[in-house]
Amino acid sequence: MKLDEAVEILDELASSFPSSGGSVGVDWQERLCTVTLDNPSSSNAVTFRMLARLGQIVRELEDWSGGVILLRGAGGRHFCAGSDLNEVMQTLENSSTAWRMSMAAATVLDGIWNHPAISIAALQGPAIGGGAELACACDMRIAARRARIHFVHARLGVVPGWGATRRLVESFGRSFALRCLVEARPVTAEIGQNVGLFDVVLEDPFELSVEEYLSGLLSLPIEALRGVKEQIRGAAQPTRGSTSADVFGRLWGGQDHQRALKAVLERISK
Predict the structure, then answer these.
(1) Cis omega before residue 205 (within 30°)?
(2) Is there a single domain that holds both residue 143 and residue 233?
(3) Each residue of 8-42: pLDDT tens digit?
């Protein structure tokens, strides 16, 4: 499914729930794009309206040339509690709606997963159900110690519908994905860091720690950040992605490379 079609479907679904709340904010900077899930009355649960807006932002990201995408939840307690339960309950008997929503949402999350910039989910609190899917659509997850990722789907008699199973297998292997989804238990920050589901666990104050962590990444040349992701994608999918040599050859001798080497030489000569 193409992204434009996905956004159209989500807009159509959202029109059936005109009173649903929540929004998705975006802050565009040259190197960093911050996307914020904001639905405080429902622990940042995602409505169709929010998914449609997220799809629009992903479409706008196609023309953005920065290096890092940060996905976060508003407030200090929750990342995302999953899908809005009121909307879910009203669509339970319509399998066609469920299929269209699944395909559209997976397409939007693929837009984050496949974007050339490094995507990071900042989890100040729980990521549950659909929230867990959103977190795992990012390249990295940085978390407060109170955070957890919880794929509750099996407990509710369903499976992930937004592409998380494929991403879990690709990132962590079949065995981990199977255990994570079948056991349907919350993965704490400590356990998640041990298995790689959380890349970094940060101390409080969390927002300040996130800024400090990002400052290191954002000090790197954008083309280098994008090049690393392209290399990793090519290594994971050698028949589809660019080879390491392709990316290396493109960046070698570029302005960023020359500038960095010149700075090193100047330091050595002092």
Answers:
(1) yes
(2) no
(3) 999 999 998 888 889 999 999 999 999 999 999 89
Assess whether 105 and 237 both reside in one domain: no
Query: Do 196 and 253 sit in the same domain of this protein?
Result: no
Question: Can you give the residue range of the structural domain that contains 143?
Answer: 3-218
Q: What is the pLDDT of residues 55-86, one digit of tens each?
A: 999 999 999 999 999 999 999 889 999 988 88
Q: Is 146 exposed, middle or buried (0-12, 13-18, 19+ CB in 10 A)?
A: middle
Total domains in the chain come to 2
How many Å apart are CA 80 and CA 128, to the nearest integer? 6
CATH of residue 27: 3.90.226.10
Q: What is the pTM of this model?
A: 0.89
- pLDDT tens readout for residues 231-245: 888 776 655 555 545
